[in-house]
Amino acid sequence: MPRDSGSDQPQKREHWASKAGFIMAAAGSAVGLGNVWKFPYMAGENGGGAFVMVYLPIVFTIGISILLAELIIGRAAQKDPVGSFRVLRGRAWPLVGFLGILAGFLILSFYSVVAGWTVAFAAKMATGMLNGQGADPAAVFGSFISSPMQPLLYACGFMVVAVVVVLGGIRRGIERANLVLMPLLFVILVALVGRSLTLPGAMEGFTFFVTPDFSKVTGATFTAALGQAFFSLSVGLGAMITYGSYLDHKQNIGRSASSVVGLDTVAALLAGLVLFPAVFAFGVDPGAGPGLAFVTLPSVFAQMPAGQIFGTLFFVLLSIAALTSAVSLMEPVVAYFMDQHGFGRTQIVIATGVAAFVLGIPSSLSMGIWSDATLFGMGFLDLIAFVTSSIMLPVGGLLIALFVGWVMGSRAIAELKGNGDTPPALARAWLFILRFVAPAAIAWILIKELIS
Ligand code: TRP
């Protein structure tokens, strides 16, 4: 068996060492701030169970189909996102890959800023700054994110760690880190759920999260749920094309995709079961928005027995989730420059890390000294987050669905079947979703969003 370990040899493509390694890496990409930070606060703002009931069907139809479509593109072409479209079709389609790589880079820039906050809060929790006598989490959070230097130092530290992982390449870097960090993440998550659900008064939060109140479902709920599904599953920009390109043809790719989507969904639901029972048990507002994890939750930990330990664990969990996702935002950019321009991994990983950090500076400052500089009523971080997750990812997902559904068509089905046992009815349902359901749903939601 050939061993491809040389990380600076663009000719010879590295492959995942094991199926479990690939699934952990893809799940590590999917499970991120989107699950543990954003999903609970979006559910909190959108009626709890009502949001979950809209979110889950989207994930298990459109979401899983596009994730599988990306893996198929990558595995078939064995290239970065731009190169993959070139190999499979050429002409204008590689533009989809460019759009994706740009989106990945933009997301990485602000993602590392928020990830820096989580690392900082892990430290603040551990040292008791957030739950000592009279500690005020809202004030701590507010003054931390609005200070110019501190958040940047944490963002820089976080980026350095992500760079170190990606420098190691596929097997020794990304796969190995995920094989350690993902099981750890789930252990912490389950421990926190246990703590939260056994608090007196936890039932009310549990009920809020699992009981759909359909009067709360509006058009906006669908827009929010679709955007969240794309972001959470890491689809729409070619991250899964890139990870799929490190697969060989031996595996049943349909089953792997289901595992990844399953793990991502379980992680989001477990995060909800950490947040809501705790938040309701202490009678605070579940609709606090982005501050839910950083302000509401620390105030809950401050009142809880052994809150300092559980609070620290929570922010360590968030930091791990963020790291394995950030790595997957960097890799498509890296793969592109290695595959298409012959760069060595080392050069391009460092260049990408530095550039994304520099672009993150205005995002970070937009929370403080630059908060008055707004465009369309949004600060820099909010604007980039909006343009990427509400526009670029859905557009990317739409085009990927059309490409696999119509351009690849029967070739995609052949790729899916491979040597495997995918039931023909499922394969047909998948193609139908890619051809009709996903494009129509995404187009409808995009149009609604842009005219509102
Ligand atoms: N899925 C990650 C989260 O939930 C974020 C992420 C990582 C991502 N890679 C991506 C989003 C690629 C879109 C595309 O936090």
Descriptive terms for the model:
single chain; about 450 residues; mainly alpha; Hydantoin permease; 18 helices; binds tryptophan
End-to-end distance? 57 Å
How many distinct helices?
18
Question: Biggest sheet, open or closed, and with what strands and sense?
Answer: none
- List the secondary-structure elements in sequence, H or E: HHHHHHHHHHHHHHHHHH
Structural class: mainly alpha
User: Briefly, what CATH class?
Assistant: Mainly Alpha
Whole-number mean pLDDT: 93
Percentage of residues assigned to helices: over 70%
Instruction: Write down the CATH topology.
Output: Hydantoin permease
Can you count the beta strands?
Answer: 0
Number of domains: 1
CATH architecture: Orthogonal Bundle
Rounded radius of gyration (Å): 21 Å
Stretches where pLDDT falls below 50 for ≥5 residues?
A: 1-10
Bound molecules: tryptophan
The geometry reads as: globular
CATH superfamily: Hydantoin permease
Strand percentage: under 5%
